[in-house]
Amino acid sequence: ALRCDQEVLRAGRLLEMEYERTNVDGLRHRYRNYRAPLRDEAGAVVGIVGISEDITARRKAEEALRASQRLLRLMVDALPQNVFVKDLDGRYVMVNRAMARYHGLTPEAMVGLRLQDLPGPRPAEIEALIETDRQVLAADRFLEWPQMQVTNAAGMAQIHRLQKIPLHDDDGR
User: Fold this and answer.
1) DSSP the chain
2) Do the bridges between strand 45-54 and strand 15-22 make them parallel or antiparallel, or are there none, so unpaired?
3) How far is 45 from 43, CA to CA, in rounded Å?
4) What is the pTM for the complete model shown?
5) 55's torsion region: left (phi>0), alpha (psi -120 to 50) or beta?
6) Whose CA is closest to 14, among 40, 36, 47, 38?
7) Cβ-contact 133, 92 below 8 angstroms
8) CA–CA distance from 149 to each of 52, 106, 155 (Å)?
9) Model confidence at 28: pLDDT above 80
10) 111 Cβ partners below 8 Å, 6+ apart?
């Protein structure tokens, strides 16, 4: 804390730091500390003002969220079916390994692409698949197409059972 105060006085600006300490309850807590120079009307530094926030619960929640996301990603990537999430502009937000492999790409390389950017699908297939997006968004419910032809990156046309469901935000949109 003393070193931080000295740095605030030397730099003359706000400093933010995180640290851990054991509290009187015997448990380790994580804090975020903000310290800034306190200036008088002439702009001279006359002291230090600080705020300390216990962020232990937030950090634990963030760690739990990351663990949950890793588990979900592991499960989705283990599926042999093509799984994807698209935004309203038709750009892939997430794809699993099977989907990326089908199109000869990595999952990371597919993020941000649209169906028409992918190697393989023919123009008629692309239009038919985009139409399924329109239909599921218009119906605002789960829809299924028992047979859809999609050509992969190797040029081989395959028949897929396609299932789509709209993804809603917290406000139900």
Assistant:
1) -HHHHHHHHHHTS-EEEEEEEE-TTS-EEEEEEEEEEEE-TTS-EEEEEEEEEE-HHHHHHHHHHHHHHHHHHHHHHH-SS--EEE-TTSBEEEE-HHHHHHTTS-HHHHTT-BGGGSSS--HHHHHHHHHHHHHHHHHTS-EEEEEEEEE-TTS-EEEEEEEE-----TT--
2) unpaired
3) 6
4) 0.72
5) alpha
6) 36
7) no
8) 59, 22, 12
9) yes
10) 91, 92, 93, 94, 95
pLDDT at 10 over 90: no
Which residue did the predictor score with more confidence, 3 or 31?
Answer: 31
Query: For 60-89, what is the mean pLDDT?
Result: 96
**CB count, 10 Å around CB of 91?**
15
pLDDT at 1 over 80: no
Please enumerate in sequence order all residues whose Cβ is within 8 A of that of 85, keeping only pairs 6 or more positions apart, or say none.
92, 93, 94, 95, 167
Q: Which two tokens stand for residue 105?
A: 């790409």
- 1: Cβ contacts below 8 Å, ≥ 6 apart: 33
Which tokens is 52 given?
Answer: 């300390």
Q: Tokens standing for 91?
A: 């750009």
Q: Is the pLDDT of residue 6 over 90?
A: no
Structure tokens at 167: 């993804």
